From TrEMBL, chain A:
This is Phosphate ABC transporter substrate-binding protein.
From TrEMBL, chain B:
InterPro entries: Porin_dom_sf. This is Porin domain-containing protein. The lineage of its organism: unclassified sequences, metagenomes, ecological metagenomes.
């Protein structure tokens, strides 16, 4: 009985570990000249404060849809903002005509494909979706 | 004026559509990554109620309101309630336009919709643009988005400071230049134009209005500073008297630190016309999941008249003498996506020689030195 309980606990811990493996990474096209970015540089690009990478090449950020877990994880780690803070941030910018939020593409695979073909693009996807067409530039 | 604005908007958007069509025929195959929709519609609004314990005067948060909670009614929905629709048009990557129509409580006591912003922007580069039209003045850190309750934590930005926002917009031109300085991003805006502002019992005309405003964002800190000046004259509708043209100038400074879970911010203004006065606030809040409790203190000073100015009239003295201070405690609750609910308590203390910003106080009543209490609740939304 006790052994059984131990196994159940162990199993529960393992499944926790597996689900915790979902991890957001920031990627650019493998054709991009950008090799790494800091959290602050990435935040500035996604919050529309800069329009280029540190090497002066144009940066084209791609967002995942509102309410998606990966988006919430990305912004809480990179910009220290939850979804309401992010909506409030963009409300201020949109309604003063100063800018628009990044374009939306839904799903890790679709984002990866869009990024792979555009050396200016930058996005965030789950680590498990990374392949050779994209380069990880930040693990926040 | 409104008719003119509507006409202008129509002309603008038709012109834009034809430019964009011409562009499309010239453009190559569509690119799903870079092709954004030309028109983006959105909007925001606030529904609110407030109650004041002072029943001999109306408590207002915006100097253009003719009535508020207090002597006119026990509970008032006018202080915060508004609805706005917004169109952003990207005609080409360089040419964009903005139209915002707003329905809120006006000086004439109606919610008649009005063109709040209408401008055409030409972006020479992504970091340098010029605009022409009706443009918001970036006097304070939240003055351009004053109407968008969802964009800030409070029910309204601290009244004693934001009441100084005498001119909300400019009909004219502005330019913006943004540059990275090391790890910081610096944005400079310059503005030139004119304005006509309707208040319940006066109309203020401003011309030769110009200003320069700087915003520096470094890490989690934002700094803001500005200088503006204008020639203004006020016509008092009851007496029919039009005041002299007086040069007004404002200096503003502010800072905001927001590392994510909490924030602290403060702003200050010095106004100079035929008298000098100042106002400031300090506010801090802490975010616990969907709740953000906050505390604010704000105050303004009475004006001291400049020796070089002509002797002040009774109206000048009354306008210069409106000192009050406010302590506020509130909470913002992000209860569902794109909606928030806020509650706020304000304790307002009037100076020993004025009725502060209370309006509609009967002529034989003085509320000097009084302390009263205001409670408010709002729902804000964006779409």
């Amino acid at each position: 009985m006790i052994i059984n309980l131990k196994f159940t606990l162990l199993f529960a811990l393992l499944s926790l570990a597996v689900s915790a493996q979902a991890e957001v990474v920031v990627v650019v096209s493998s054709k991009s000249s950008v090799t790494s970015l800091t959290t602050e540089q990435t935040a500035k690009i996604f919050l529309g404060k800069v329009v280029t990478f540190p090497n002066e090449h144009a940066a084209f950020p791609i967002d995942q849809p509102e309410g998606s877990a990966i988006r919430d994880e990305f912004y809480s780690k990179v910009a220290h903002k939850n979804s309401s803070q992010l909506t409030a941030y963009w409300a201020k910018i949109i309604f003063t005509g100063e800018g628009r939020p990044p374009q939306l593409i839904a799903g890790d695979v679709a984002v990866r494909k869009a990024i792979a073909s555009n050396p200016s693009a930058i996005g965030y996807i789950d680590k498990s979706a990374v392949n050779r067409s994209v380069r990880v530039v930040l693990k926040p | 004026m409104t008719k003119l604005n509507c006409l202008a908007a129509f002309v603008l958007f038709s012109a834009g559509i034809s430019i964009a069509r011409a562009d499309q025929t010239a453009a190559s195959a569509p690119n799903p990554l870079t092709d954004q929709p030309m028109f983006k519609l959105g909007g925001f609004g606030t529904l609110g109620l407030s109650h004041s314990s002072e029943s001999l005067g109306d408590y207002i948060v915006d100097s253009t309101s003719p009535k508020g909670a207090g002597i006119s009614s026990d509970w008032s929905a006018t202080n915060a309630s508004r609805f706005a629709a917004h169109v952003n048009a990207n005609f080409t990557p360089k040419v964009t336009a903005l139209l915002q129509v707003d329905s809120e409580y006006h000086a004439d006591g109606t919610y008649r919709p009005e063109v709040e912003w209408l401008s055409v922007k030409y972006a020479f580069t992504p970091n340098f643009y010029m605009r022409a039209g009706r443009i918001a003045l970036p006097t304070f850190m939240d003055s351009e988005s004053w109407d968008v309750g969802y964009s800030y934590t409070w029910i309204t930005p601290p009244v004693d400071l934001y009441h100084q926002l005498s001119i909300p917009s400019s009909d004219g031109i502005d330019a913006m230049y943004r540059a990275e300085i090391g790890d910081a991003v610096n944005t400079v805006k310059a503005i030139y134009g004119k304005n006509t502002l309707d208040r319940p019992s006066s109309v203020t005309t401003s011309r030769e209005m110009w200003g320069i405003f700087d915003t520096l964002e470094y890490g989690e800190t934002t700094y803001h500073a500005g200088y503006q000046q204008r020639m203004s004259s006020t016509e008092y509708l009851l007496t029919g008297v039009t005041g002299a043209w007086i040069q007004n100038s404002d200096i503003t400074v502010g800072a905001n630190y927001d590392p994510g879970n909490w924030f602290v911010m403060s702003e200050w203004i010095q106004r100079r016309s035929n008298y000098v006065s100042s106002a400031m606030y300090v506010s801090a809040g802490y975010r616990i999941n969907k709740f953000t409790p906050y505390l604010t203190h704000s105050q303004n000073s009475s004006g001291s008249f400049l020796q070089s100015s002509p002797p002040p009239t009774a109206t000048d003295l009354q306008l210069a003498n409106r000192a009050q201070s406010t302590d506020s405690l509130g909470v913002r609750w992000d209860f569902m996506r794109n909606f928030d609910f806020k509650m706020q308590y304000d304790r307002v203390t009037l100076s020993d020689n004025s009725n502060g910003y209370l309006i509609n106080v009967p002529a034989n009543v003085t509320l000097y030195g009084t302390t009263f209490h205001v409670i408010s609740a709002v729902v804000d939304f964006v779409f």
